[in-house]
Fold this sequence. Notes:
The structure holds two protein chains of two kinds.
Chain A: H1 2-18, E1 43-46, H2 54-61, H3 79-87, H4 91-103, H5 113-146, E2 149-154, E3 159-164, E4 173-177, E5 185-191, E6 197-201, H6 203-206, E7 211-215, E8 235-239, E9 250-253, E10 259-262, E11 267-268, E12 273-275, E13 279-286, H7 292-296, H8 306-338, H9 358-372, H10 379-397, E14 412-413, E15 427-431, E16 437-448, E17 451-453, H11 456-486, H12 493-509, H13 513-521, H14 536-539, H15 545-556, H16 559-564, H17 571-585, E18 590-593, E19 596-600, H18 614-630, H19 633-642, H20 645-660, H21 662-672, H22 683-696, H23 699-706, E20 717-719, H24 723-734, E21 737-742, E22 746-751, E23 755-768, E24 773-779, E25 786-792, H25 794-800, H26 810-832, E26 836-845, H27 847-862, H28 867-878, E27 883-894, H29 898-907, E28 911-915, H30 920-929, E29 939-943, H31 947-968, H32 986-993, E30 996-999, H33 1004-1017, E31 1022-1026, H34 1032-1037, E32 1040-1044, H35 1051-1055, E33 1058-1060, H36 1065-1103, H37 1116-1126, H38 1129-1137, H39 1143-1148, H40 1153-1157, H41 1164-1189, H42 1196-1218, E34 1222-1223, H43 1224-1247, H44 1260-1265, H45 1268-1295, H46 1299-1308, ...
Helix pairs in contact in A: 3-5, 4-5, 4-9, 5-12, 5-37, 8-9, 8-36, 10-36, 10-38, 17-24, 18-20, 18-22, 18-23, 21-23, 22-23, 26-30, 27-28, 29-36, 31-48, 31-49, 31-50, 32-50, 36-38, 36-41, 36-42, 37-43, 38-43, 41-42, 41-45, 42-45, 47-48, 48-50
Chain B: E1 14-15, H1 21-47, E2 56-63, H2 70-74, H3 78-81, H4 85-89, E3 100-101, E4 104-105, H5 111-114, E5 120-127, E6 130-133, H6 144-150, H7 161-164, H8 193-199, E7 207-214, E8 228-234, E9 245-251, H9 262-293
Antiparallel strand pairs in B: 2-7, 2-9, 3-4, 5-6, 5-8
Helix pairs in contact in B: 1-9
Binding site for Mg(2+) (chain A): 431, 433, 1027, 1031
Pfam families (chain A): Cation_ATPase, PhoLip_ATPase_C, PhoLip_ATPase_N
GO molecular function, one term (chain A): ATP hydrolysis activity
Amino acid sequence: MADPIRWARYRWQRLISTEGREVSSSSNSSSKRYQSSKTASKHRIVIPCLGHFKEEYEKVSKLYMNNKIRTTKYTLLNFIPRNLFEQFHRVANLYFLFLVVLNWVPLVEAFQKEITMLPLVVVLTIIAVKDGLEDYSKYKLDKQINNLLTKVYSRKEKKYIDECWKNVSVGDFIRLSRNEIIPADMVLLYSSDLDGICYIETASLDGETNLKQRQVVRGYSEQVSEIDPEKFSSRIECESPNNDLSRFRGFVEHSNKDRVGLSKENLLLRGCTVRNTEAVVGIVVYAGHETKAMLNNSGPHYKRSKLERKVNSDILWCVLLLILMCLTGAVGHGIWLSRYSEIPFFNIPGPDGKLIPPALAGFNMFWTMIILLQVLIPISLYVSIEIVKLGQIYLIQNDIDFYHEKTDSTIQCRSLNIAEDLGQIQYIFSDKTGTLTENKMVFRRCSIAGQEYCHEENAKRLESYQEMDSEDEDSADAQYASLNHMSKRRGHNCRAVNESLKKKSLDQLSGSYPVAGRENSASDVPHAGHVAFSSRIETDVVPDTQLLEKFSQISSHSYQQSEDAVSKLSLETTYIIDFFLALAICNTVVVSVPNQPRQKMRHSSLGRMPIKSLEEIRQMFQRLSVRRLSSSPLPSIKESSSESPNSFVSKLSIFKMKLASPALDGAAQRAAEPHNPDSPENPQLSEELDMVNVAAGSEHHSAGSSVKGSSPLSKLCYEAESPDEAALVHAARAYKCVLQSRTPDQVTVDFTGLGSLTFQLLHILPFDSVRKRMSVVVRHPVSNKVVVYTKGADSVMMDLLGTASEVGTKNSEMEQKKIKERTQKHLDDYARRGLRTLCIAKKVMSNEEYTEWLNHHFLAETSIDNREELLLESAIRLETKLTLLGATGIEDRLQDGVPDTIQALRKAGIKIWMLTGDKRETAVNIAYACKLLEPDDKIFTLKSQSRDVCALVMNKILEGIQKNTSAKKTKSQKLGNVSASPTTQAPAFSAEKCRAVVCCQATPLQKSVLVRLVRNKLKAMTLAIGDGANDVSMIQVADTGVGILGQEGMQAVMASDFAISQFRHLRKLLLVHGHWCYTRLTNMVLYFFYKNVAYVNLLFWYQFFCGFSGTSMTDYWILILFNLLFTSVPPIVYGVLDKDVSAEILMQIPQLYVMSQKSVAYLPSTFWITLLDAFYQSLVCFFVPYFTYYGSDIDIFSFGNPINTAALFIILLHLLIECKSVTWIHAVVIVGSILFYFVFTLAFGATCKTHNPPSNPYWIMERHMTDPVFYLVCLLTTCVALLPRYLLRVLQGTLFPSPVMRAKHLDKLIPEEQREAIKRWKDDCVVNCRMEFQVTSGSSSSATGAVSEEESIASVLPTSKTPLQFCSRGGLVEEVSLSDIQDESGNTNSLSSERTVFLNLSKETNSDSYGSSNCCAKVSQRTSEEGKSAISLAGLNTEQV
Amino acid sequence: KPDNTAFKQQRLPAWQPILTAGTVLPAFFVIGLIFIPIGIGIFVTSNNIREYESNVFMYYGLSNFYQNHRRYVKSRDDSQLNGDNSSLLNPSKECEPYRTNEDKPIAPCGAIANSMFNDTLELYRIDNDTRTPITLIKKGIAWWTDKNVKFRNPTGDGNNLTALFQGTTKPVNWPKPVYMLDSELDNNGFINEDFIVWMRTAALPTFRKLYRLIERKNNLQPTLQAGKYSLEITYNYPVYSFDGRKRMILSTISWMGGKNPFLGIAYITVGSICFFLGVVLLIIHHKYGNRNTSADIPN
């Protein structure tokens, strides 16, 4: 996959360079700066093929690729050469090609020339067929995509006509309707949306199904009518194609040389789907392989498993062995020849009648031997491994235990060749949110103005929800099953495109696409819910009674009155109002209505719009009516003053018009039907509403009841980027502060008692991981002031609070302080309960302040160079002197079975690290909840910003650990909570000794750095598991990446090797499938080595009796087919199906995992023992017949026949000894192989008279079949050859049974006994461990034993304000740190349970990542010493129950 | 949703052998009990082979003669030997350098044929100074399939071998051409049994090849009575150059071929070892066997 793209890129660059342009590397785009037209040659110019541009168009456009894509590697013509070329990139294939060529040299020719080619040809053919089929399916897919239709503007016909995707080229105008897929990257020039907005769904690119907003190029959005391509006379200049999805730079140059900047907001990406927008028109800028989607499509990634690397090294040993044997042959032949003074009869002289000198003959013989003994290097092994892995993957994918009913998804194995690595995992790096937890955010608690609201009722609901939950979701599943499975697989882009096509067509089939689907989306369905994060558990929030009471006061008061005299209204009430407004506004949630899905609700300024939909009218009406009736005249005037008087008038006129419309009445009635009479509406309000009822039919009923949340209208869908946001919006809605609509420039909130408030949206300063907060700047409709609402992590927010709030009085200052303190207390409490916390704050700005900031902000926005940094600065400048409103606590429940899974994995000897972006308290709490930490664990915290300090702290901690343990000598476990900047090595040290590590507030980059650190420094096998885009880098870095099909899109899944739907599936995946895959493949590989060595050695021994002349006593065909046919299938079946221990036992006794984790089955000694056994067996197999037939009149091939037959029996029965479970498939295959051998040899013997010189084994097998000696020889040989291995296995099983053996015994027991035995097993382990602990602590009394006991958590707290790269260092720093440590350690002596080393440092920069600090080095040395003991005792650590 | 079948869920009923002393004990005893009688049987049979009873086979033996040398083995043309006329006149390249001589194709070509053993052995019984020649039968010494299927004289008009081999020349080392190997038509040319036997290349450098049969005259007398015999050898075949030895072997054969005690002894030994191991395992099983049945052995 990667190839065609690279090829395309290469071709593209070459095209450019032939034009005398600089080749620009498109991938290295980050370093490139956008520059103005001076360097325009680096950029592409897009012009329409219209009018006066025609000439230039023809010149320019031929440089650009058209929209035809070809992801196939081959064409019909180049398939054979190209495929062969690719295949010969493999060393193994080259080796065999070399052998084939070698055999054509007459001097060294050992076999018939053609025969040597056979294995190679077979292997090449198998792989070529596989590649061909794969490519063909790609070709079909490409064809399908290329032939999709889209509407392209035709110059001839002056209208949009249907055109295939492949015919689209750069500069074309394309018109798309709703739900159509974008065929190429294009700049948006027109949208039927009045604001010039187009919504796209990028699911096929990144899996995120929430809608993204795109804007029409500035200057075009004002056009009322659709853009006319004929009149488009501008040229577009933009950067060269690159793969950066989040960036697009360029400008439109109008004919009058005016320039308008282009950003990614203007770009519609290929593969995305247009949603919610009737029609859009755009001009294609990148097409085909140059689109961002295609450039991003890096194709499947290949990882090489650890086992494979080991196999490769062992193959090198085989090569060495081969060379040794060949050398023996060569030397032997030379010596043998030199014994003869004359030419004997049996040696054939050269053409000149003389013999070649022995040395040269020996040299030739070397090569002959290589051909003869070639099978020693198992070519079949590679093919077999591939096949076995496919089989294993097939079985994993079919495991019903991985099937998750709710999401109708099962495991996806995206990487085919690392299944066996699952059995060797030592470290698991897990994301928290969405991986360990459900990522269903449930609003649990909040604190407003220092007053906490516990939401007990909501908690109760959640408790009782459990059962209800599953039932509901089940019912919804049925409907979603069909839809969901479509979106499961998003392999590469074109597939994704294809699928979204399918999805679309399915939608069309099901009638009104979303009606079936979306109506329910508000209720349940987590998976489809990743659209809106709207499972019922999240959407339904039972309001706190206390808070509700306070709300009722607000309602009875008039907000407007309070606005007049702020002081009158209690401060608390304003806080509450602001708090909920912030919850409703401060987000990027897109609102849509279920029965008209993805149709945004809008309240545009009416002046310039035709009436679009019923909803709008209804909403507008409702807004007007409610406001008019519920508030005094004053506010409406005030409010309308924010709008133009015009619009107010027009609103009224529409209002009237609507009253007259009978159709509307019907619609309104329909809407009102489901109105729930027992809704807890404010009586006063409903009275008022009744009045409106008279005026406008039943229209407003819906408006009123929308607050309640049960009428259809109220089923607003909130599509949030993160579930937290959705949870907050839903929480606000529970308090009847309903987010009604959101457009780029306004937000409407329906607030009980206050009516609908429309905020003019001035800015959104989006969330980023540096600031850790987001803000919205709105103009308050009532006060008409600029208000900033900010929400963010408390760690950053608390520092931004202004002491001098706008109120300014001393009183309020005190109040503020108090609020801050109390809120902080609540926040800490929330964190302790494992809730996710957010601080909500606001700031009121005067117009002057705002204008000033705005000026700066505009500068930042319009700057071209380092725009991002300037915007960041600008945001920071705004977010100061905030007034704290309150805090929220959101619960994210643990997924099913997470604690059990984590416990099992830990018992399996796997160390689990939790890497999360959450704050420490939350992370630690979740860690306790999921049994990652045990209550009697000791936590060490390390928090610092510099590497050096970290090292010091580590040092201290280690010392502390040593002291503590030697003093106490208890078995209480300690947890070193080591938190350090991940660039240091400290986490790696701790990793060896810590059982669990928690790293908090880690950015995606830091996550991946940590994984890489452990992987490289400790040479450990790592597995990273995560569900979101922030885990992608970590998943890619780890040896095995596991993605969770969660709520946050498909990015993690797309980057992963395995995708599962629940964290608990990891248990079976690792403990059962990992163990199986590893042992199976290992045993098969070892068996292959054995088989080849044993068989080839038969030939080798014969050389000693034929003057090392390279004779084979077996017919060449049989020799070749022996490996290819007679003994190839059983090992494959063995590799796919063998089962040493049953799945149930493996699940229940995780300790068995250690067997595969530590490669017990494939130690270096195992390899050599296997080879030794192979040598022994071949010796027996050769010499028993040898002595039997010694001195007789037997001929060569009659001699070879019993040897070969015995070898077949030995090799197959050897497999049977090694098999742990024999099913009918094994039996069939083994018996089949033997039968096949006999049938073949008999047939061969019956027919081959002269056609196969020199052997022509005519009638040999037939004669032997009637000869009792043949059977006696075979029987004896087989028994003697297998006796040692059999005996070894028996003794092993009797005297030193491995845990696997013992577990196997459990399989045979009846269930009750089994349960009993498993229990006993666990008890034993505990007893055993304790014993050994005593031993170690007794023997060493020093640190080593103790350290191994220690277990720790490291929480990585990177600097909050500086990005990762900025680490600090310096003399001053060290002093500070030392004193800090001393202080802290003094404290910790008194504190027994929790030891916290806390360091805060000034920041400085540190450019070298692996500096040479002394203390750092010291620590590393010390820990590596201790590391050894930790490793040796690692097994003990894991087995504490 | 994956199918819930036994195969896909890896729940196929399986025989799961556990190799422990207890479970394999019977196997060892059974092997021992089977092998020892077999071995004794073979041993006795082998030792009962006497040179003088029933039909006696007369072999010549060569040692240090590497008939299994790779290039030697290849140096033949089976098509030619099968009577293929075109191969007769145009032998395979494998026969080089014994393919042609003086521009005439050699029949039979190749090194094997060229080096054919051509000593003649004659056996006389000496009875009171009178030498009675023993009748040596030269037919029936080759494989039936070789004589009748694999080896054939060239086809053509008539049975005149001289004419059929027209245009070919004799192998370099041969004193006379192939069609003069024997006087009898059905033992001449390529189907001469001595030739056929020679062409079946021996597997090991020390080998014997069947030379003649001595048929038993009647049931009352042994085939070769006790007494003095003389062997007359016409020495044609030099073996000195490769340090070879020639032998003449007289033997009868049983159902298991010639006399070779190895197989019998091996069976007896292996059987005994198995039996012994069985006893050892019995002891082990008695001492440690109980541990296996429960899981309570610590790691």
